[in-house]
Design brief:
With 121 residues, this protein is an alpha+beta fold. Helices cover 34% and strands 24% of the residues. The protein has one domain: Aspartate Aminotransferase, domain 1. It contains four helices and six strands; from the N terminus they run αββββαββαα. A six-stranded antiparallel β-sheet has the order 1-2-3-4-6-5, with helices on one face. The relative contact order is 0.19.
């Protein structure tokens, strides 16, 4: 996945907003809260940061191409950075971005969730 594909996918999720901040990174928010960041790469390849469950965090931090996200994980938050692009991992990234969107949206107030049409099931 490249940054254009990342932005297109994140923009397709419900109630998202986009800003460029933090060193020209692509930052996606739901209800004003960050759920995904495209950027912070140490090389020319795209890098993506997203929130995870505790279980996925434990699994991904030990997996090739992933590491605890700079600035987030060192504060005890369960955020991961995919820093090595592997073409056949795009489906995995889509899953993790969708899950990050869901996890962050669940942290919004019930009123805010209802206003944005989130988590109505």
């Amino acid at each position: 996945m490249n940054y254009d594909q990342f932005n297109k996918f994140c923009g397709s999720l419900l109630a998202t907003t986009y800003v460029v901040q933090w060193g020209n990174s692509h930052v996606w928010k739901v209800g004003g809260k960050v759920f995904a960041i495209g950027g912070w790469a140490e090389n020319e390849q795209p890098a993506f940061v997203f929130k995870t469950s505790a279980l996925n965090f434990g699994f991904l931090k030990e997996s090739a191409g992933y590491k605890p996200a700079p600035y987030f994980a060192n504060r005890g938050m369960k955020w991961i950075q995919q820093f090595h692009r592997v073409e056949d991992k795009d489906d995995d990234l889509i899953y993790y971005l969708t899950e990050s969107h869901r996890l962050v949206s669940l942290g919004l107030t019930k009123k805010k969730q209802k206003e944005l049409g989130l988590n109505s099931r």
